[in-house]
Amino acid sequence: MITDNHGREINYLRLAVTDRCNLRCSYCMPAEGLDWLPRRELMTYEEMLRICSLFITMGVEKIRITGGEPLVRRDLVPFLYKLSEIGGLRELTLTTNGLLTGDFVSDFKEIGIKSVNLSLDTLDKDRFFQITRREGLNKVLETMDKLLENDISIKINTVVMANKNIADIIPLVRLTQHLPVSVRFIEEMPFNGGTHQVTLDWDHRHILDHIRKQFPAMEKLPDAPYSTSYNYHIPGYKGKIGVIAAYSRLFCGSCNRIRITSTGVLRTCLYETGSLNLKDAIREGCTDAELRKRITETVLKKPADGWEAQDTLMTQHREQESMATIGG
């Protein structure tokens, strides 16, 4: 196992395959989008397969594919087939906004993907357009239905934003009455690639209090090891509710995750920039043994939590990044 300097075993890799997205969500990027990376700066699928294979030999058991929106990258599904065949990988999943996903659900089932994180911040058509700056709510809901029909479990990720989608919290909770989905409400984070500052008027406590007022019988569920969410259940409902203290960073102490951006940068924490570029190392001719050494040395510098990482980031005077460039 890869172990950091705080004794935490790292067995979960989040791999971004692109920075591009077909939405322009206000909490992720400016309305005009980003300066998309040239293709030559992205990792190739061959490089990603080599990196993933290496991490699996080092103890990684779960890989989540992210973006941007991963399905905007051409030939993603053949890559997923190849990735799923690597021995030692126990779980392969992805995060998607659902707009392009419906056409590939049967492939996901054949590949062995058993769970998908679906980004959905509102059930209202007009608010969907206001938040994402695009049309497409119906396609997302159709994707949700197809995933459930194919027995692929769904975690709905909802970023809670003051003055934008508060009215959607209760309707999204009610989805769990008849659907076996987990709806997870996420504190807004400062990764929109612009100047908007997070005030956190709606932190995890405020979100929970808001839900409890409507559903006082809501019960706490045991949280799985390494869980980023505090999980709950309303008696008689099929699904679950989660609250993720993403900005408060209450789950950092048990962190078992690392990220690789679409350009190959290894980030040991969401709130730090990364110092090792695996794509560049591969193109420089590094052997697997040399890559293992560099990875091990980098993970040993993993911050204790997101606050420590952010303090370092502030001393470097870095500009605010977009979640799409980090890897969602």
Automatic annotation (TrEMBL):
SUPFAM superfamilies: Radical SAM enzymes (SSF102114). One of its GO terms (molecular function) is metal ion binding. Keywords: 4Fe-4S, GTP-binding, Iron, Iron-sulfur, Lyase, Metal-binding, Molybdenum cofactor biosynthesis, Nucleotide-binding, S-adenosyl-L-methionine. It comes from the Bacteria. It catalyses: GTP + AH2 + S-adenosyl-L-methionine = (8S)-3',8-cyclo-7,8-dihydroguanosine 5'-triphosphate + 5'-deoxyadenosine + L-methionine + A + H(+). Its cofactor is [4Fe-4S] cluster. InterPro entries: Aldolase_TIM (IPR013785), Elp3/MiaA/NifB-like_rSAM (IPR006638), MoaA (IPR013483), MoaA-like (IPR040064), MoaA_NifB_PqqE_Fe-S-bd_CS (IPR000385), MoaA_twitch (IPR010505), MoCo_biosynth_MoaA/MoaC (IPR050105), rSAM (IPR007197). GO terms for biological process: Mo-molybdopterin cofactor biosynthetic process. This is GTP 3',8-cyclase. It comes from Parapedobacter indicus. The lineage of its organism: Bacteria, Pseudomonadati, Bacteroidota, Sphingobacteriia, Sphingobacteriales.
